[in-house]
Amino acid sequence: MTTAEISGPDWSTRETPRTPEEWIARAGEVAAILASDAVERDRAAATPYAEVRLLKDSGLVTLLGPAEHGGGGQNWPTAYRVVREVAKADGSIGQLLGYHYLWNWAARLVGTREQWEHVEAEAARNRWFFGGAVNPRDDDVVIRDEGDTLVFNGRKSFSTGSKVSDVTVLEGVLEGTDKHVFAIVPSGDPGLTFHDDWDNIGQRLTESGSVTISDVRVPWRDAAGYVDKEFQPRVYNTLNVPTIQLVFVNFYLGIARGALETAIAYTRSRTRPWLHGGHERAVDEPYIIDIYGDLSAALWSAEALADQVAEEGLWFHEHPDEVTERLRGEHEVRVAAAKVQATEVALEVAGRIFEATGARSTTSREGLDRFWRNVRTHTLHDPVAYKRREIGVYLLQDKLPEPTWYS
């Protein structure tokens, strides 16, 4: 069974959610649909066209969009919770949705008011799904200036969303300068070639393979944040990294929550007590009780920190012109702390659940390994040791993290 064959509700007949609680509940409905065949879809690793259609039909893709154009009109703390809820069922789709939110918001982070108002209105009206080809570890895409037009050429080894997206965010450097340019282009542009080479152990449905960019043409007027070919800088421009890092935090925690809830259900119904333990039910085994208590306490703590940091970060999005380097740096330190906790807790939960579920739970049919594979794959995105260093250097030396592609 695939997601395309699952009979979900007729979303068009449902009222659009209005409150954060209603949007999180809508995400829970989507998650329930995804959970019904998550193991099979993970094994097949097929391009998730149907899954993205589900995100569109349910309205989740419009969550951050302006209400007057058909969007949800919600804020980032709600978006993070929605990502977490979807990731409980499917880490890949949680990642895709979180990246979509970031790239949709990137127009506001980097662009002029005229640019981002246009992008957000079009995205909400048309339910665009965003992908991005902005991997900073690769050589920069080179941009040629041809008067009124920019021409992008290069290759990126990662392009999350790729074929399932409607639009793709490109980034490159103007030839002969150090000026970076972001622009949004149709994902069907003939100059974009997606190579279908994403073949990792986890996050298998994220369509994160490489892309070749060949003579993709963009009008200068669409170069985000540029006026008369000059960039208009703000400290707020650098909030893309803390924002996406909080996306990571929340789909890690969502994966961990999914692993824990799935394991608890398995233990309640199928785990057998140890024959020498003196108990008739696995749920009465003291060491099993201890494992679930320990993992739950750790996860609840990490979730609480993530929610608190998300609320702290809301001020920056509501007051973009008041963001200072000091405030931005201190927020990044808090985000780093949430990232450290989420990484360590998610890996621990996804790995230790087997101690409580037992040997029979390791069959491929159960698919419990997918939680660990998913969180292990993406937590290698950038070394968590450097997040700990950001915190320590700030506390001991009062040095703020320098804004980079990773901090």
UniProtKB/TrEMBL annotation:
Occurrences of domain Acyl-CoA dehydrogenase C-terminal (ranges): 247-381
CDD domains reported for this sequence: DszC (cd01163)
Source superkingdom: Bacteria
Signal peptide: none
Residue stretches spanning the membrane: none
Record's protein name: Acyl-CoA dehydrogenase
GO annotation (BP), single: L-leucine catabolic process
Keywords per UniProt: Flavoprotein, Oxidoreductase
Gene Ontology MF term list: 3-methylbutanoyl-CoA dehydrogenase activity; flavin adenine dinucleotide binding
Region of interest: Disordered: 1-20
Keyword Flavoprotein among UniProt keywords: yes
Annotated ranges, domain Acyl-CoA dehydrogenase/oxidase N-terminal: 34-118
